[in-house]
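Deliverable D5.2: sample structural annotation.
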Amino acid sequence: MSENHDTILKRLSDAHAKAHVLIEALPWIREFAGQTVVVKYGGNAMVSDELRHAFAQDILFLHHVGIRPVVVHGGGPQINRMLEKTGVEAEFRGGFRVTSAETMDIVRMVLTGKVQREIVSLMNQYGPYAVGLSGEDASLLCGRRRKAVVDNQPVDIGQIGDIETVNPEAILSVLEAGNIPVVSTVALDMDVPTEVLNVNADTAASAIAVALGAAKLLMLTDVEGLYADWPNKDSLISRICVEDLRAMLPDLDSGMVPKMEAAVRAIDGGVQGAHIIDGRMAHSMLLEVFTDAGIGTLVHGSDSEDCGCDE
């Protein structure tokens, strides 16, 4: 069946646009080939089927163009649903959910036994490369319990911790075998080795990126990026140097603070760039990394030529 002239022109135009995108991506592929990129995965990108498949495709794309992706995931919504199902009552102190031993068993089960297995299975539909790791494996993540502050006094919030050390050997072994590590964010308790701690996934991804000497840290979130004047949508910052971001931290919305602190720690630890990317948009990760425009916020070192805030 022959095509009419307009159909042929449209097909050629679409093909030309695809070729342009591939050529635009070439310098970035060349720059990051062979380098490690840590991707923090969570939020809405994790619960929408369309976005889950787009994420898996993006990670496999990175892998096949010679980049070494490491996926670090949380699972807050899934944990909350399971706690509701099991009837475990939520207790909060100082803004933190108290994580009892019973709660931690559920956190561990959901993160490593459910969420991680779903991510690994999904990614392996597009190529048999994903390998699951827990922060417990080979003492990958070790931490100590944190305290919340109520009325200027430290209070116990259970098995919630801050990362103290990262032993990247398990991740490196998976990478050297040509596979893609998928890490769930629980950590061994350095003071009580028989117990594990729930740690913030943004913080864990940042610490892992530093330990691996990663070129980039990509954090998928539920907003377009960092705003200079939230909620003014016209104040989205496309690039910001770490010193400018550090100065902004005290005034940021509480929900954005862990991500921005993680970005600062990554840059301070030698990571070249930390990207805050809207995980609600399919393939946003590839658009941010491999196109000239980018769509999120890039945090870079203070020695960059264009250090400063570009709104």
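Annotation notes: The two ends are 51 Å apart (CA to CA). Residues 72-199 form a domain with the Carbamate kinase fold (CATH 3.40.1160.10).
The annotation will be released with the project's public dataset once the embargo ends.
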